[in-house]
Amino acid sequence: MDWGALHTILGGVNKHSTSIGKIWLTVLFIFRIMILVVAAEKVWGDEQDDFVCNTLQPGCRNVCYDHFFPISHIRLWALQLIFVSTPALLVAMHVAYRRHEKKRQFRKGDQKCDFKDIEEIRKQRFRIEGSLWWTYTGSIFFRLIFEAVFMYAFYFMYDGFRMPRLMKCNAWPCPNTVDCFVSRPTEKTVFTIFMIAVSSICILLNVAELCYLLTKFFLRRSKKTGNSKQQPNHENKEETKQNEMNELISDSCQNTVIGFSS
Amino acid sequence: MSWAFLRDLLSGVNKYSTGIGRIWVAVVFMFRLLVYVAAAENIWKHEHDEFECNIKQPGCENVCFDHFFPVSHIRLWALQLIMVSTPSLLVVFHVAYRKNREKQHNQKLYKNPGKIDGGLLCTYLISLILKTGLEIVFLVLFYKLYNGFKIPRLVKCAIKPCPNTVDCYISKPTEKMIFLYFLVATSCLCIVLNLAELSYLVFKYSIKYYLKRHVKKQQ
């Protein structure tokens, strides 16, 4: 189980996404997950070993490291990526549920179902409308929230996005204020800014997708109300005709019944 | 042999699960297995090397580490994941047994071998009870072994060959605690999902059973 498995799961969702959704997925995999696995993990690989404090006091280094890095950047990013990918699973589950329903209809031999065989159902691409629209929009909304929360948590925990070279620490058992030096601060700053920039791009893509879906929804609605406004006159005429027919039928029924009884 | 094996096993189970069962599989994959492999494993990677005691006495660090961490958190986590996923195999085996029986007798004995009814329902319920039980057992084990879900920065150790009471410092205690809480939260979520699935199945099939009886009585 690793990021490759996540790629397989989310790849299935790709078929039913909008174009912006597909771009988002590509950015996620190439510029975030791949960079994390191939480069960032190595930069942070030796972070505690090479965190050096100007003291021989045993334990001081451990305590200072723990004080300045309650949760490592690399782990925060991994959690962020996992949480941000999870809403797409909702869409995958909804699509699977719809497919399951269609298969059931097909097996029952329902005439509404117009597929020739099960393979067609499996390969079918569902349009984003109806309840699937709500699931999809909900998933984008949650993605946005998770991205924003993690970016804020990052900013809050590390006082900005810069990695300082030197940190002064006086947590017990360090005897006095002690200088501690972070390993590879510049490289870490570069990667942090890169990951934050890509997160921002992903947020923008999600906002764009949300706007696109909402616009489509309102356009479709206005088309429907436009069509239904033209129809009511027709419907009224038909209804009155039907009412007259019904009255005629009920009158003739009553006559026959009365005739029969007498 | 790696976590991919467990992943493939669970994907097989997914076919015969209810909707809540599929949510459970998704939670186990995304929030437990993936977090374990992608993040948690690396935090505990050098825990022994980074465990430092304020003493030069050889052997003291080893002995103190062994005293405070009889089984490492990360190994308990891995065991928990494996044990909790295994009861689902009972369902897979039962379905395979049904299909085998059909083949042997060369007739259609079941309308659908994968449908949860009759004996398969009992197996499914047993697997749910086992899963929940094992989750609770591991949570209690974590709690008892480590005095709650806390990881202190400093532990005091006075075991031979340490000459007196010695200060020992655990590495990355805050990060370990955050991930430990995450583990507990996802375990509790899985327990809730299992109990929900259990109640749903019991409720659904008792209603079916009573309706059948009612119809028979009327006839």
TrEMBL record, chain A:
Family: Belongs to the connexin family.
Chain ranges of the Connexin cysteine-rich domain: 146-213
Keywords, ordered alphabetically: Cell junction, Cell membrane, Gap junction, Hearing, Membrane, Transmembrane, Transmembrane helix
Origin: domain of life: Eukaryota
SMART domains per the UniProt record, alphabetical: CNX, Connexin_CCC
Protein name (Swiss-Prot/TrEMBL): Gap junction protein
Upper taxonomic lineage: Eukaryota, Metazoa, Chordata, Craniata, Vertebrata
Domain Connexin N-terminal: start-end pairs: 42-75
Intracellular or extracellular location(s): Cell junction, Gap junction; Cell membrane
Location of the region described as Disordered in the Swiss-Prot/TrEMBL record: 225-245
GO biological process, one term: gap junction-mediated intercellular transport
GO molecular function, one term: gap junction channel activity
Membrane topology, from the record: Multi-pass membrane protein
GO cellular component annotations of the record: connexin complex
Residue ranges of the TM segments: 23-40, 77-97, 132-158, 191-214
A Pfam family hit: Connexin
From TrEMBL, chain B:
TM stretches of this protein: 21-39, 77-97, 118-143, 178-203
A GO term from the CC aspect: connexin complex
Pfam family, any one: Connexin
Domain Connexin N-terminal: 42-75
Membrane topology: Multi-pass membrane protein
SMART domains: CNX (SM00037), Connexin_CCC (SM01089)
Keyword NADP tagged: no
GO molecular function: gap junction channel activity
GO biological process assignments: cell-cell signaling
Top-rank lineage group of the source organism: Eukaryota
Entry-linked InterPro entries: Connexin, Connexin_CCC, Connexin_CS, Connexin_N, Connexin_N_sf
Keywords on record: Cell junction, Cell membrane, Gap junction, Membrane, Transmembrane, Transmembrane helix
Primary localisation category: other
Subcellular location, record wording: Cell junction, Gap junction; Cell membrane
The UniProt record lists the keyword DNA-binding: no
Residues annotated as domain Connexin cysteine-rich: 134-201
Family: Belongs to the connexin family.
General function of this protein: One gap junction consists of a cluster of closely packed pairs of transmembrane channels, the connexons, through which materials of low MW diffuse from one cell to a neighboring cell.
Quaternary structure and interacting proteins, as annotated: A connexon is composed of a hexamer of connexins.
Protein name, entry field: Gap junction protein
